[in-house]
Amino acid sequence: MRKQPQRTDSTMRNTASGARQLLGALLLSTLSFIATATPPAPRAASNTTPTAEANTVASLVARLRAQAAASQSSPAVRADYDTLLADQRVSTTQLPYADYAYLRMLFEATRDGGYWNLHWAITDREPNSDAIWTQWRSLRGATPTGITATAECDELSALYAFLARRGGVRNVGLFWPTSNHTVAVWRVASSPRETRIVVPTTQIFLTQSDSFGTRGFDPWKQAKIYEYGRRDIVDDARLPTTLVAFFLAQNDKYARASGLSLQRMRQLRDGVLDGSLGADQAARQAQAQLDRIAVSAADDRGAYAHFIRDLQTSARAP
User: Fold this and answer.
1) Predicted TM-score of the model (pTM)
2) φ/ψ bin of 292: left (φ > 0), alpha (ψ from -120 to 50), beta (otherwise)
3) How many Cβ atoms sit within 10 Å of the Cβ of residue 201?
4) Residue 65 neighbours by CB distance under 10 Å
């Protein structure tokens, strides 16, 4: 029978010290994991919580402008703006930062596979957004992996142009790069001729890397691009409170991220929406992308954390 070793005071002190060190290491490790895996809390400054009394089209647009204004403090948004100015050879006077931030946010939200979960399909409907608004007004709930409306390229482009004008940005119209395809174009006054910025509301006939301001289509192929002036829905039309809340929450999660990160998340989201990619698969791919983003890119990392959490929640849902 083995004799039990006697414990001295020194042994007891060393054991207690080691236990404290081990507990401290475990605590730091746990806190580090929580900080990495937990999305940042929504910014209180945007004050975009909808109410039953204020969920009209007009109030939604006002909140969108407020959220776009808040996104202007993001280094990623500013960097994308500076890149567009240089690429299009226009000045800050010709292309105001506030207008860019608003149109950029609209683009990322309302494009096919964007974070408002619109999905492209052939519909053979007229080139306006009426049917999108009809679908939205009948929706009683929205989830991060559920389609909110189905529309064709000309409908998506009309929705974008309509919201641009309602938000105070003029000269956004429809452009047909081919006879069977439509995107939006933002016309900016410049010399010797106006600058035309292509806004690809879908990736049709483009690469997966084409985004806001793409050169994939020549906007001068169409002699005249008219501002979209049709009033697709009246300002006082009411929208479901849950839908407005979803839209605003999505903006809070993603509006400050870089265009590159939003483009990569859009590709994954589009796969989930069209059924070609499971939510769990998309979450794993998104995590791999997040792992390659610099710690200093806080807005991108925060957007990815929200995206991954929402995908994981969807994957666990019955």
Assistant:
1) 0.86
2) alpha
3) 28
4) 18
